[in-house]
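quick q for whoever's on today - can somebody do inverse folding on this one?? i tried earlier but teh output was garbage lol. tokens:
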């Protein structure tokens, strides 16, 4: 049996292009939604990881901050960029077995 890495990288800005090229974006959206994330709010420019913690397996990512009108808020420190914030949710649904496994170093 293969032991999963302590931090599994699901996507980032570079891998997002690979997911698109391999037709996996729909499955990635479904997986994010099944884990309680709003797929359209998850930033493709930042890492999406699964981490093993003492509190269980968690998904960490960055999501867009939306205003009361539902629109993405602008980042006041980065002109022209959307504001994002960290989001952590429990892993409820494992990614499909046929997705590539990319390990990322855990916290030091």
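ok took a stab at it. sequence:
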């Amino acid at each position: 049996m293969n032991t999963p890495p302590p931090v599994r990288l699901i996507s980032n800005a570079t891998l997002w292009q690979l997911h698109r090229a391999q037709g996996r974006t729909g499955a990635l959206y479904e997986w994010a939604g099944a884990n309680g994330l709003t797929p359209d709010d998850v930033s493709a420019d930042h890492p999406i990881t699964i981490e093993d913690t003492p509190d269980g397996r968690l998904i960490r990512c960055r999501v867009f901050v939306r205003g009361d009108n539902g629109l993405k808020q602008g980042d006041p420190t980065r002109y022209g960029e959307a504001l994002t914030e960290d989001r952590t949710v429990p892993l409820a649904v494992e990614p499909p077995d046929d997705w590539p496994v990319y390990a990322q170093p855990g916290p030091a």
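fwiw The longest helix spans residues 25-34. also The chain has a mean pLDDT of 89. so keep that in mind when u check it
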